[in-house]
TrEMBL record:
Membrane topology qualifier: Multi-pass membrane protein
Any one cellular-component term (Gene Ontology): plasma membrane
Ranges where the FAD-binding FR-type domain occurs: 326-450
Major place of residence: membrane
Database matches in CDD domains: NOX_Duox_like_FAD_NADP (cd06186)
EC annotation from Swiss-Prot or TrEMBL: 1.16.1.9
Transmembrane segments: 30-50, 158-178, 198-219, 231-250, 262-284, 291-311, 317-334
Protein name: ferric-chelate reductase (NADPH)
Length: 623
């Protein structure tokens, strides 16, 4: 604590101006305790997450998953093992998952009944042999679904839960600012509060995030907290600066003060704060992402240096921030790989497929990496320095290695697509692809401590390029099921696209998934929202895959998954006691996420309890 007393002396040495009220409270101690309180809140969230942490890591295989990308030697595919799964109510499955008696509206293909019957028989005839389902620990949202539903209620671009958390945080800052003090007579207090929040803002911005490691939230899910904490810091810094400007102007000493170094550095720090806060707003992030990024790269280091030169007493807080950031950079370097990738254009989906054969393991489904294309020729000087996040589109340990699907939405993704197109239709010929050197950083994010294979049923709702995460999750469940490592027996994959043409490039993937799902009931429903059904000819689709016009009725689809899951038994007479809930994962634009959130929140409580919970996992593409 000695540094705190030293700091008090430093601040005490600052001249007390006439009319400026210096608080009698030990300001340093006050803001130090503010940070300790915030740490206690973090400890609370860590403790309530612990049961899920222990459950997940009770299996040794989880210890190494999702940390580092690497190459693993591929073994021959395992032979399917038989497990004691039974579908109690065959009619339920047949009705939803393919009976000709229950056609989907506007569907262009139906599953022939005999195929479903065959699949059902193969499952129902399974014998008791070795299997090892992962242990399941429901999320807190399952324990208190009504509470979770209220907290997930959307208000503007935040949920009620996020607003409550931000309100508590803001109230703490206000309390620390006003305790035995006044914003009008004691501008120093706001400076102390701003200083105490520097490490908080920085730790919330890091990719390898200490808070994310302790709780279940990846860095991109904590990003809203970083933005608001940064804004609160900027407000406090401005109150501090403007308070002194006001006092000095009244005293007529403003220009005199401007001659002193520590005041100039104070103004510099506040100006940096303002630049960071203004250029971080949604407007700039969406319209000029690079400006937002560059402003951070330049203004943030200047801000830290300016703080130390403004008041040396701020140095411990700045060093804490530098420590968090240094750890982040180090871990990011350790997680960085420079490899050769092959890029292919997929015009039907308006995206570029990136294949990295030399990295085929080390990620969990739903995780993303940050991609940099090291080609000045194709991407330009600026483009080759940019780094963009993309969800890994397949399971690990496949011959094609890691696959990314990068939809063209702006300059960078457009350039990548053009680069791939030139190669595809150039000398190498169609399908050859183009080899490029890429830098991959990650993996990050993912489903936290949830293990999809530990649930009884799963529903994936994907919008546009969000299908990448959903497909890899389904692939993993099917593969684990073949190995007897997945409890999931019912899978529904819903994909919403603009035109039916989007289905063509993914048809082989979907067909392969359906063929492999010999022991799991898989249904894939694709919905196109732009073309009229009359424009779409009759397409030859495999059993289990449907193509329909319009938007999906998510509530109805989820009810069907509930019905089927409730019909499953694991060798016992009823499903009671053997079910472990349904995971509903949504991956796509924020609007789709909200729809699914509402549907999950309004599931009949009795059915929810019967199936042991319906849990939502959101992976929104965007900041
Ligand atoms: C966790 C995560 C996973 C994602 N996974 C996929 C995926 O699998 N497939 C896919 O097609 N898209 C995915 N995206 C979106 C993808 O990263 C952006 O579409 C891409 O970065 C846009 O770059 P651009 O310069 O072409 O477009 P721009 O026009 O510059 O930007 C379009 C939008 O993307 C955002 N954006 C731009 N650059 C970045 C960046 N470096 N980091 C974060 N956001 C940025 C902007 O805020 C803007 O809203 C993902 C995004 C996130 C956050």
């Amino acid at each position: 604590m000695s540094h705190l007393h030293e700091k008090d002396e430093v601040f005490a040495a600052a001249p007390v101006l006439p009319g400026v009220h210096r608080s009698t409270v030990d300001q340093d101690q006050l803001v130090f305790h503010l940070d300790i309180f915030l740490l206690a809140v973090l400890a609370f969230f860590t403790v309530i997450t612990l049961p899920r942490v222990f459950t997940r890591f009770s299996r040794a295989s989880e210890w190494t998953q999702g940390l580092f990308l690497y190459y693993a030697k591929l073994e021959a595919p395992p032979r399917p093992r038989r497990r004691p799964t039974q579908i109690r109510n065959a009619a339920t499955v047949a009705a939803r998952f393919g009976s000709d008696d229950a056609p989907m509206p506007d569907a262009h293909a139906h599953i022939p009944r005999r195929q479903i019957e065959g699949k059902r028989r193969s499952i129902a005839a399974s014998l008791r042999t070795s299997f090892f389902f992962p242990p399941h620990m429901p999320a807190l949202s399952t324990t208190a679904p009504t509470f979770a539903r209220i907290l997930r209620y959307p208000i503007t671009d935040l949920t009620l839960g996020q607003i409550v958390l931000l309100t508590i945080y803001f109230s703490l800052l206000v309390y620390a600012s006003l305790y035995k003090s006044s914003l009008f007579t004691d501008p120093l207090r706001a400076g102390f509060v701003a200083m105490s929040q520097i490490p908080v803002v920085v730790v919330l911005a890091t990719k390898v995030n200490v808070i994310g490691i302790l709780t279940e939230y990846g860095y991109h899910k904590l990003n809203y907290l970083h933005r608001y904490a940064g804004a609160f810091l900027a407000i406090a810094a401005n109150i501090h600066t403007l308070g002194y400007v006001y006092q000095w102007t009244l005293e007529g000493v403003f220009y005199e003060k401007l001659q002193t170094n520590h005041v100039v550095w104070g103004f510099t720090a506040t100006a940096c704060c303002d630049v960071l806060a203004i250029l971080s707003t949604a407007f700039w992030r969406e319209k000029a992402y690079n400006l937002f990024l560059t402003s951070h790269l330049i203004a943030f280091p200047i801000f830290l240096v300016a703080c130390c030169l403004h008041q040396p007493g701020m140095t411990p807080y700045v060093l804490a921030a530098v420590g968090f950031y240094g750890f982040d950079i180090l871990m990011r370097l350790v997680r960085t790989r420079i490899v050769t990738a092959t890029i292919h254009p997929v015009p039907e989906l308006g995206l570029t497929r990136v294949e990295v054969p030399s990295l085929n393991a080390g990620w969990r489904t739903g995780q993303h990496i940050r991609l940099r294309i090291l080609s000045i020729y194709g991407m330009g000087w600026w483009g080759s320095t940019e780094i963009h996040p993309f969800t890994i589109a397949n399971v690990e340990k496949t011959p094609e290695g890691m696959v990314l699907m990068c939809k063209k939405v702006g300059d960078w993704t457009e350039k990548l697509f053009e680069m791939a197109k030139v190669a595809e239709y150039g000398e190498g010929g169609a399908g050859a692809g183009r080899e490029v050197t890429v830098m991959l950083e990650g993996p990050y994010g993912g489903p936290g401590h949830s293990v999809f294979a530990s649930y009884s049923g799963a529903m994936f709702v994907a919008g546009g390029s969000g299908i990448t995460a959903a497909v890899s999750a389904v692939q993993e469940l099917i593969r684990k099921d073949i190995d007897g490592l997945s409890r999931v027996k019912v899978i529904e994959l819903v994909w919403v696209v603009q035109t039916h043409a989007s289905l063509t490039p993914l048809l082989p993937v979907f067909t392969s998934l359906l063929e492999q799902s010999t022991m799991t009931t898989l249904r894939i429903d694709v919905y196109y929202t732009r073309a009229a059904p009359s424009e779409v000819g009759k397409m030859e689709l495999p059993a289990g895959l449907s193509l329909s016009a319009g938007r999906p009725k998510i509530a109805k689809l989820l009810e069907a998954v509930l019905d089927c899951t409730l019909s499953i038994t694991f060798g016992s007479k009823t499903s009671r006691g053997c079910l472990a809930g349904i995971a509903v994962a949504v991956c796509g634009p924020p609007g789709l996420g909200e729809d699914v959130r509402q549907v999950v929140g309004s599931v009949d409580p009795r059915r929810r309890n019967a199936v042991r919970g319906v849990e939502l996992h959101e992976e929104a593409f965007g900041w």
